[in-house]
Design a protein that fits this description.
The chain is of the alpha/beta class. Helix content is about 40%, strand content about 15%.
């Protein structure tokens, strides 16, 4: 079997596999010298899929089309086909080869530390790395517990408060004019300890969350004042969540007057934090300070941008909540999934579009929220999933009704022709397409934006040149905010990291162009005006992966450069000498942009991305734009191919949930 491991090493040398993938196969052979070629190959494929965000390997996919499974190029596909001809021809034969090895255990067998687990169902067997199997089991168990029981609700009081919080005529329009989905979301959140609220940009997720907090506050509790925590995967997303919740609650307080006193809730609610900060990340360990033994001291936890939460983080987050605490997930199910393995929000929102509300939920919605749901959202089969009863999809965007919204919808629906039509024929120029054989067009946009659309990095550099007098601390703080705000009005988003069309190449090219234009002075790695993104969590410094700041001189003369970050209205800074894990951030990946918005967003697609890029990446890039979106691409094929290629991450989470969370007839 070492011959197969040698072949896998050669494929890693050619870049067809990661070295880690080949190493897992060789490690399996070390543990089980009698391991079959099928087992070794499955281990390598599983490892490679984990690197692409899958939590497991559907064994069915090992039969028939390995080049599709591994996204193989032509040369790789030829060698792959030759090898695959020697491997099992059926699912049953693959399962037999896997279960014959001592490195694989069945889901119902004793855990003796085997690195691989064969789970799923007889009809759909799934091969896992052991830790992902354990994560999925933990998440499924927590979800079952949190949606399995109904909390008592004073329905008369809830109805009265909901009518107060959502007066007739105040609700935003929806696809179904008879349904106020925001009001429904608040109602269903009252009766269970887990609620999922999903919807695209501008559908009012945080608006709804603010009213839910007001509802919970007004409903009261004998346990004392409501303890609320706000969190998101990134610092930028957390800051935006806090700002939005605060603004919504303040507007609501003005509208309600003396009917509900929300001042105490507003004052008691602390700053929103990253998930790592909330859970208490510790250096040199994946474990957090808060876990099942040391739960978070909260009654209600609201988590925004939940699409970014990977499986391991979701397991840790749910473990750290006491059984009595409520958790509300907010997020866009159609956005990119997390960089790491798992697509948990996508799994949780499997039934969100269809509703699948049971007769019991329909009756509750009628009594408490006064909502009659259309027949298409009802499920009278007697098998309506419990999770669906606690999931609400907000269906109408108030912000994205123009060309940006039309473009995002066309992409999300997979309609290439309509998306291209909006890009080409938008007379408002809110959306625009530039086709270029080189990244020069991107550099030009980075310097000065495009006609009729503000943006470009010249704006923040001009603000930086208007530095106040030395020693004026207050004026310096205002100046720093102006610089950071100006920088955040424009951003280059890339589909890939490497190459001249990727993050690395464009960061170098933009920096060089700004220097040549006399807008930036560079000397060494650190220089005033350098935008940076944090690439690793550092709880000691108070910076986390994805945070973006700018290197500036402090208020007092002679001070060394510091990286300044803005969390909502608050500023924080760190000496650049202490920041080892950062990268220049004129350009960033679409993944890293999640949780952020920019007035003018430029999405850069490489000419070589066909077969590699997905619909969710395009959709996420578009929906980062508030007022203007520009697509720069070398050809139309990459764009069209990506729109027609939705992401499908392998996961067994729904299978685990379906086993025991359906409503009995």
């Amino acid at each position: 079997m070492s011959a197969l491991c040698d072949t896998l090493d050669q494929w890693a040398d050619k870049g067809w596999l990661r070295r880690l993938d080949a190493a897992l196969a060789r490690f399996s052979l070390t543990l089980c010298p009698q391991a079959s070629p099928a087992l070794l190959m499955a281990a390598a494929v599983l490892s490679q899929m984990e690197g692409r965000g899958h939590t497991c390997l559907p064994v069915k996919q090992l039969v028939g089309a390995p080049h599709t499974l591994l996204m193989a190029t032509d040369d790789f596909a030829d060698e792959l086909s030759q090898l695959w001809a020697t491997l099992p021809p059926s699912v049953e034969a693959w399962v037999a080869a896997l279960t014959a090895s001592t490195v694989v255990r069945g889901a119902d067998q004793e855990d003796a530390g085997q690195p691989l687990v064969l789970g799923g169902s007889p009809d759909d067997p799934l091969l896992y790395l052991r830790r992902y199997w354990l994560y999925e089991r933990r998440v499924a168990a927590q979800l079952r517990q949190r949606v399995g029981g109904r909390l008592p609700v004073d329905e008369a009081k809830a109805q009265s408060l909901l009518d107060l919080l959502f007066p007739r005529g105040d609700a935003p329009p929806s696809d179904d004019a008879e349904t106020d989905w925001q009001k429904l979301a608040c109602a269903v959140a009252l009766r269970a300890q887990l609620t999922v609220i999903t919807g695209g940009p501008g559908t009012g997720k945080t608006y709804t969350a603010a009213r839910l907090l007001a509802l919970l506050f007004a409903m009261g509790s004998e346990a004392g004042p409501l303890r609320v925590a706000l969190a998101a995967p990134t610092g930028k997303a957390a800051a935006r969540l806090k700002q939005s919740i605060d603004a919504s609650l303040e507007d609501l307080q003005r509208a309600l007057g003396d009917q509900i006193q929300l001042d105490a809730l507003i004052q008691r609610m602390g700053a929103a934090r990253t998930l790592h900060a909330l859970l208490g990340a510790r250096p040199d360990t994946r474990r957090f300070r808060h876990d099942a033994s040391h739960p978070l001291d909260v009654d209600v936890l609201i988590v925004d941008e939940a699409s970014m939460i990977h499986l391991e983080m979701m397991a840790a987050l749910l473990d750290a909540l006491s059984p009595q605490a409520r958790i509300i997930f907010l997020g866009d199910k159609d956005q990119l999934a997390s960089v790491e393995a798992g697509a948990v929000l996508g799994d949780l929102c499997r039934d969100a579009r269809d509703g699948r509300y049971s007769p019991e939920t329909l009756a509750y919605a009628r009594r408490v929220a006064g909502q009659e749901l259309a027949l298409i959202y009802q499920d009278h089969s007697g098998d309506a999933p419990l999770l669906a009863q606690q999931t609400v999809m907000l269906r109408k965007s108030r912000r994205f009704g123009g060309p940006i919204g039309q473009l995002a919808k066309a992409v999300n629906d997979g309609h290439v022709a309509e998306a291209t039509r909006v890009l080409v024929w938008d007379t408002t120029r809110a959306v625009h397409k530039i086709q270029s054989d080189s990244p020069d067009a991107v550099i030009e946009l980075a310097l000065s934006g495009r006609d009729g659309v503000p943006g470009g990095y010249a704006e923040y550099l001009q603000a930086m040149a208007e530095r106040p007098a030395e020693g004026d601390v207050d004026a310096h703080a205002l100046w720093v905010r102006r610089v950071l705000t100006a920088f955040d009005r424009f951003r280059l988003l890339c589909a890939v990291r490497e190459g001249e069309w990727g993050v690395a190449g464009l960061n170098r090219a933009v920096q060089t162009a700004l220097v040549q234009a006399g807008l930036l002075r560079v000397s060494g790695e650190w220089f005033e005006g350098r935008p940076v993104m944090v690439t690793r969590n550092d709880p000691v410094l108070g910076v986390f992966n994805g945070d973006i700041g700018i290197a500036l001189r402090p208020a007092h003369r002679g001070g060394t450069l510091r990286a300044y970050f803005m969390d909502g209205p608050e500023l924080r800074s760190v000496s650049v000498s202490r920041m080892a894990h950062v990268e220049t951030a004129f350009a960033m990946t679409v993944h890293k942009s999640q949780g952020s918005e920019f007035a003018h967003t430029v999405l850069v697609l490489p000419p070589y991305g066909q077969g590699m890029l997905q619909r969710e990446l395009i959709y996420t890039g578009i929906t980062r734009a508030k007022t203007a979106f520009t697509l720069v691409s070398a050809n139309t094929e990459t764009w069209a191919d990506a729109i027609q290629r939705p992401t499908r991450r392998a996961s067994g989470l729904i299978t685990m949930l379906d086993a025991s969370t359906s409503i009995a007839p």
